[in-house]
């Protein structure tokens, strides 16, 4: 297992899906622009405990792009698109599960290099 980063931030256990868990950097329930969170920072922990950074915003379709290639302490930093503003835990879970196939592919690609 690679060294872990983001140790000062909490995992959101409710998001756990297929062994992947979303970690919160930005407080997703602090609504600076109205009644929902529309962008932020987080991370994802893979089943083996390794982690990657996430920078997220909103659009109609989920997407992912590489911001920082895999490094010793993380399997990259990715800009992802959530499909729904976050008002509740259910919104966060839905968004995470919607982008999870893209994150799984990024994880697999990081370890195949």
Explain what this protein looks like in three dimensions:
The structure is a single chain. By secondary structure, the protein is an alpha+beta fold. It has one helix spanning 89-111, and strands at 10-17, 20-24, 40-45, 51-58, 64-68, 77-82. It is built from one helix and six strands. It is globular, with a radius of gyration of 13 Å. It starts with 9 loop residues before the first strand and ends with a helix. The mean pLDDT is 91.
Oligomer: single chain
Number of alpha- plus pi-helical segments: 1
Largest beta-sheet characterization = 6 strands, mixed
Spatial separation of the terminal alpha carbons: 15 Å
User: Major sheet: order of its strands?
Assistant: 1-2-3-4-6-5
Mean pLDDT: 91
Class by SSE composition = alpha+beta
pLDDT under 50 segments (min length 5)?
A: none
Number of strands: 6
Determine the strand fraction and express it as a percent band: 25-35%
Gross geometry: globular
Protein name: 3-deoxy-8-phosphooctulonate synthase
């Amino acid at each position: 297992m690679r060294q872990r980063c983001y140790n000062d931030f909490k995992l959101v256990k409710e998001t756990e899906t297929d062994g992947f868990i979303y970690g919160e950097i930005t407080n997703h329930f602090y609504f600076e622009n109205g009644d929902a969170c529309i962008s932020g920072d987080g991370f994802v922990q893979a089943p083996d405990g390794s982690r990657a950074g996430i920078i997220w915003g909103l659009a109609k379709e989920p997407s992912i792009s590489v911001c920082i290639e895999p490094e010793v302490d993380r399997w990259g930093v990715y800009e992802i698109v959530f499909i729904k503003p976050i008002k509740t835990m259910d919104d966060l879970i839905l968004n995470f599960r919607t982008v999870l196939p893209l994150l799984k592919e990024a994880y697999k690609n990081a370890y195949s290099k």
